[in-house]
Amino acid sequence: MEVERSGRIEGFEDWDAALPLAGGREETIPYAVVPESDLNALGQVYCARFPAVMDYGERVLLRERLERPLSAPLVARLSPELRRIYYFANADPHETLTVRLQAQVMPAPASKVVTRLRTPARLLFRIDLSRGSDGVLMASSLVRKALKIPGQLKSVLTEADRWLGGLANATS
Question: What contacts 6, CB < 8 A, 6 or more positions away?
Answer without folding.
Answer: none
